[in-house]
Amino acid sequence: MDSPTRLYLIRHGEVEARYHRIFGGRIDMELSPRGREQALVLAGWLRTVHFNAIYSSPMKRAQQTLAPLASKRDVQPRTLDDLREVDFGEWTGLSWQEVHERFKASAFDWLHMLEEDAIPGAESAQRLRARLEPCLRRMLVESPGQTVAVVCHGGVIRMLLAVLLQLPVPKLAHFDIEYASVTVVERRPHRAEVELLNFTPWRDMA
């Protein structure tokens, strides 16, 4: 039997306070001081995991999370532009309350609205999937049966899970993907299995 490819889907750490509860998307924000601490704790927890390949979004928050993880490893991280976060169009930079006031929409329905292409100017779920599926195929082709880290974003992780698990995108609203969390999926030839979901090793951090 072929060995599975193990994908560690890693969300970046907490972002700057001014972007909390904001639809950041394409805004290239940085980690908060707490986010940088989370990244260090995360890297420490993963230090015994041997990654055959590491891929990352080009956005600052992902690159800053990647830095301690990739330090002192013998594998060169690869930045893939298509791993950037989803573009929220006219919601970009707005708070959840502002989205409700301006668009009469609940922030909690964002996955449903992406699926329906109902966020003005935003990247639809179909377009997001079209750019992420080639990234996923590349990882699986380049590292068959190996262990791969993917440092990216909440929206990206949800879409990758939707593809791997063959789930409708709105169903991923039931999956919490927190800052600096780890989700592990084993990809076999004909199925994918979730081994770990939204684990946050920094949870007890003072």
Description:
This protein is α/β, with parallel strands linked by helices and about 210 residues long. The protein has a single domain (about 5-85, about 125-200), classed as Phosphoglycerate mutase-like (Rossmann fold), CATH 3.40.50.1240. It contains six helices and six strands, in the order E-H-E-H-E-H-H-H-E-H-E-E. It has helices at about 35-45, 60-70, 95-105, 110-115, 125-140, 155-165, and strands spanning about 5-10, 55, 80, 145-150, 180-190, 190-200. The protein has a six-stranded mixed sheet with strand order 3-2-4-1-5-6. Helix 2 links the parallel strand 2 (about 55) and strand 3 (about 80). The longest helix is centred in the middle third of the chain and has 18 residues, at about 125-140. The chain is globular, with a radius of gyration of 16 Å. The N and C termini lie far apart (about 45 Å).
In short:
This protein is an alpha/beta fold.
Question: What is the count of β-strands?
Answer: 6
The H-level CATH homologous superfamily, spelled out, is Phosphoglycerate mutase-like
Low-confidence stretches: none
Bin the helical content. 25-40%
Counting DSSP H or I runs of 4 or more residues, the number of helices is: 6
Rg (CA only): 16 Å
The biggest sheet, with number of strands, parallel, antiparallel or mixed sense and barrel status, is: 6 strands, mixed
* Global structural class: alpha/beta
Strand content: 15-25%
Distance between the termini: 44 Å
Order of helices and strands: EHEHEHHHEHEE
Instruction: Give the name of the CATH architecture.
Output: 3-Layer(aba) Sandwich
- Taking strands numbered 1, 2, ... along the chain, how are they ordered across the largest sheet? 3-2-4-1-5-6
- Name of the CATH first level: Alpha Beta
Number of domains as seen in the coordinates: 1
How does the overall form come out from the CA principal axes? globular
Mean pLDDT: 95
